[in-house]
Amino acid sequence: MVQNFNLLVQHWPLYVNIKAIFTLIPALLGLKGNLEMTLASRFSTQVNLGKIKDKPTILSAVLGNFALTQAQAIVVGFLASVGAILLKYFTEKMQNISNTGEIDLANSLVLIAGCMSTASFASLILAGLMMFIIILSKRININPDNVATPIAASLGDLVTLVILSYLCSFLFEIKSQLWIHSVVIVVFLILIPIFIYYSYNNEFVKDVLKNGWTPILLAMIISSTGGFIMGYAISYFDDIAAFQPVINGVGGNLVAIYASRLSTALHRTSEQGSVPFWAPKKWFQYLLHTFSGKANPESKTAVILAVMAVPGHLLFYFVITRVKIYNNTMNLATMTPSFIVFYTSVAILQVVLLLLICYWLVHLTWRKNMNPDNVCIPYLTAIGDLLGTAFLAICFYALYLAGEERLKTS
């Protein structure tokens, strides 16, 4: 659904006139996905361990997580939009295609106000939905780890992209009244310390407020690198915009499920800061145990997730081609056997690498006395964004060098 919507909106006036939005989308979707998936993983673990079970604890946990995700979302929205504007500016400078050598103030305010509003509204909707699903899943004896994280990842991208497109389009239409955009930005900046104060006094999220910012901000830098690659690649291969949300979304969804299940297993079998009995003893055992280790209680999960990537990507590829044919925007170069094989191969490689990194990173953070629910998913999804975008750019460029000149934007 995300890639279909992406195909529909890329020719809107907003996307045509504010090119920085193409750089913004990978970073914003990745960062927003981090917030929702971290919330889903954290809340699922707390529910599975019985820490959230009656009305008082449910109410306190829900309100605390609402306040925390709002503070994080607004900060993320502001930093992601500013980062996208600066990245686009320096990219144009490097390519010598900037006409004025200056940043367009009106378009920048549209992007910042729209991005902060999108992050806030999307988090409000998604956080509420995630916590409801997790509590409901536990009540009907379904493991929330298997349900909440993939829903957060898939719905998060779609909801965020829809809100961003329509809200920024509205702000773009009224950009002659820049005072509105300025007021929106100021109001959200004022709300940040209010949400932080409430979160600090809530037992369920106080620790996350103190220790959860570093992963989010470092993930933003990693995701922005992917956005930089995307902004550069799309100027040569515009078809890359249709495939990028898919390769990043699938990889992020699958590795988030694995991280959430591993974290729950660690909470159940050992104390945070200790070395569980089933942890690998040597560095090379992480490579072996991820998919085949008998001691790893989630090794079969990793195999299933890796295998799922194959039919998943083929299905999404079929949907993308059907939509592009319907819209009369199909590039025949993306329908060749060589493209299908190369694209599927790099997509599967991304998933396998993410699962390997996940198994090592979850154990590392646990031994360092850090909660993997709060730390790992931002890094993993950001690395997934970077790997997915880089591999996709390599796929297009390698095929172009091999003689498939139709891939290049005419």
Mind explaining what this structure looks like?
It is a single chain. With 410 residues, this protein is mainly α. It has helices at residues 2-9, 13-17, 20-48, 55-95, 105-139, 144-173, 178-200, 206-211, 213-234, 240-269, 284-292, 299-326, 337-367, 372-401. The model has no long low-confidence stretch (mean pLDDT 84).
How would you concisely characterize the structure shown here?
The chain has 410 residues and is mostly helical. It is built from 14 helices and no strands.
The biggest beta sheet reads: none
Separation of the first and last Cα atoms: 27 Å
Helix content: over 70%
Please tell me what the overall shape is.
globular
Which secondary structure elements does this structure contain, and how are they paired or packed?
Layout: H1 2-9, H2 13-17, H3 20-48, H4 55-95, H5 105-139, H6 144-173, H7 178-200, H8 206-211, H9 213-234, H10 240-269, H11 284-292, H12 299-326, H13 337-367, H14 372-401
Helix pairs in contact: 1-6, 1-10, 3-4, 3-5, 3-6, 3-9, 3-10, 3-14, 4-5, 4-7, 4-9, 5-6, 5-7, 6-10, 9-14, 10-12, 10-13, 10-14, 11-12, 11-13, 12-13, 13-14
Please name the defining characteristics of this protein.
410 residues, mainly alpha
